[in-house]
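Structure (tokenized):
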């Protein structure tokens, strides 16, 4: 087998593995969607408890670092923008909407959630599988996908959406305070620039990115957690793969949604 054939074989094997992973993620999201209405209708207390714990860990406990990073980012961006455009409050507000709301807020929020909760979900599910807890749950007649997967996907997705809006709000408030007290930019100009650029399109793009990021990040980490075999050494490997795959998915989806939004709303 010559060198060119080896390259094609490796490329084909890599493509098949990635396609299999994508199909598993989509299948898991489909299962979660299918189980959502029955779980909502029956109001299972155990599922609700797992969901609230996931929202607490992913959303509430991460709110501090989200607000801190958003404030620092807003301070850095407003300083750089004002140094370039001067005291043009209208243009400063527009740049904040374009940079923070459309791109950085959903992207950085997803990265923080991946670093905190993505590794934890993959490691937790992998540990449960090795210890036989998932098999025990299924032997008791409890659907593992409804009890373990659904609340994690819902909890992470809800948390990412809420944290993204917190990120935008914190960044805008910090930018406004620095622009007003540090650079003496008129309040009316700053707000006018934001309101002129903040339309339904920006809100739809922001919500779509945060929603899709949350769904794919949570499903990817769940897939890798359940893929662990019987060796404890596979748990950190699964957590690492979950993080790397989630990061790739987030950046890919960010570019795809931005492109689709540009051709749809232009």
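Design, position by position:
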């Amino acid at each position: 087998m010559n060198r060119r054939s080896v390259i094609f074989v490796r490329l084909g094997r890599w493509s098949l593995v990635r396609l299999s992973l994508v199909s598993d993620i989509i299948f898991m999201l489909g299962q979660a969607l299918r189980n959502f209405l029955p779980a909502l209708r029956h109001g299972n207390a155990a599922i609700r408890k797992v969901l609230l714990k996931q929202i607490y860990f992913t959303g509430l406990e991460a709110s501090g670092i989200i607000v801190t990073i958003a404030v620092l980012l807003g301070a850095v961006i407003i300083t750089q923008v004002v140094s370039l455009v001067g005291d043009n409050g209208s243009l400063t507000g527009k740049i904040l909407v374009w940079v923070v709301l459309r791109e950085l807020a959903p992207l950085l929020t997803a990265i923080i959630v991946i670093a905190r909760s993505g590794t934890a979900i993959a490691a937790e599910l992998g540990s449960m599988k090795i210890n036989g807890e998932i098999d025990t749950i299924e032997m008791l007649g409890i659907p593992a996908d409804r009890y373990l997967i659904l609340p994690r996907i819902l909890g992470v997705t809800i948390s990412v959406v809420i944290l993204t809006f917190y990120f935008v709000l914190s960044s805008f408030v910090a930018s406004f305070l620095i622009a007003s007290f540090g650079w003496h930019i008129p309040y009316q100009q700053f707000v006018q620039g934001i309101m002129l650029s903040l339309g339904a399109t920006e809100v739809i793009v922001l919500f779509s990115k945060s929603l899709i990021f949350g769904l794919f990040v949570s499903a990817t980490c769940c897939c890798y957690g359940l893929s662990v075999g019987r060796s404890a050494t596979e748990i950190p490997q699964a957590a690492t793969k979950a993080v790397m795959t989630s990061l790739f998915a987030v950046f890919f989806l960010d570019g795809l949604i931005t492109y689709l939004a540009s051709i749809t709303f232009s």
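Reviewer-requested clarification: The mean pLDDT is 86. The radius of gyration is 22 Å.
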